[in-house]
Amino acid sequence: MKQNQPIIGLLCAHETERRDQYYVTNANIQAIVQAGGIPILIPYQPKEQILRILEGLDGLMIPGGDDVDPGRYGENPILECGDIDPLWDELDLWAAGFALERNLPILAICRGCQVLNVALGGSLIQDIPSQIKDPIKHAQKAPRWYATHDITVQSASLLGGIWQNDSKKVNSYHHQAIAKVGRGLCIVASAPDGVIEAIESTEHRFVLGVQWHPELMTDYYPVARRIFEHFIQAALGS
User: Is 213 tagged catalytic?
Assistant: First the structure.
């Protein structure tokens, strides 16, 4: 094993429709491994056990998945709200809160970006097609690695420094998005229809949430690899 490999917690998804299982996609695991980190999968379990795991981490990654329960940000679900899972929400929100309090580096992807926002008091658009005027397509019908729509990235930001001069296009697999931005977060990327595509913390050294899926793009887009590499480098400094 290489020296100086940070331990990265990967929060597990929870599925009960077909069978009761906890899982993380291989793309998420390999993105961390290829960037030089050691992924540790964290399923839902008693909080005292989660705490013991979190205390040994150098960074936390919150992957994508189902919708966040609107009750978590004080709303009732609209008709277009999708599947929710209270155990999954509890794990993600509790772990995010712990990592934020300890200033652990966080990389939050798609649902994870939304979780990060809700953990800091923000709210969500429950369904882009029914709640946004003239939206672009955010649920693409294209290869999962392929970048289909433009984003505007703030150059004077953590993400802007990572992006450099690459083409600013991303893949897209979501129907929810950030509405009210949470405490201490700022918008650093947006889509042409105004949908927020990335947020980062103004109060932590590396807390980045992206609405797309860079883990699916690492074989084709250098900037996707750089996102994970910068995350791992931040975790090395923890």
Answer: yes
Our answer to whether residue 175 is catalytic in this structure is no
Contact 37, 43 (CB under 8 A): no
Whats the size of the chain, residue-wise?
A: 238
Token representation of residue 109: 């992807």
Question: Which residues does residue 40 pair with via DSSP β-bridges, in sequence order?
Answer: 9
The residue behind tokens 């005292």 is 48
CA 129 to each of CA 50, 107, 133, 177: distance values in angstroms, whole numbers, following the listed order: 36, 26, 8, 11
As assigned by CATH, the class of the 7-236 domain is alpha beta
Chain segment 128-166, per-residue pLDDT in tens? 999 999 999 999 999 999 999 999 999 999 999 999 877
Can 110 be counted among the known catalytic residues?
yes
Q: Evaluate if pTM is beyond 0.85.
A: yes
Structure tokens that stand for 54 in this block: 């979190």
Choice among 110, 149, 175, 197 that is catalytic: 110
Q: What angle do CA 173, 37, 189 make, to 5 degrees?
A: 35
CB–CB of 67/176 below 8 Å? yes
How do residues 12-25 score in pLDDT, each as one tens digit?
998 866 678 889 99
Question: Among 175, 204, 213, 230, which one carries the catalytic annotation?
Answer: 213
pLDDT at 1 over 50: no
Place of tokens 């420094």: 161
pLDDT digits (tens, 9 = 90+) for 31-86: 999 999 999 999 999 999 999 999 999 999 999 999 999 999 999 999 999 899 99
Q: In the chain, what are the domain boundaries?
A: 7-236
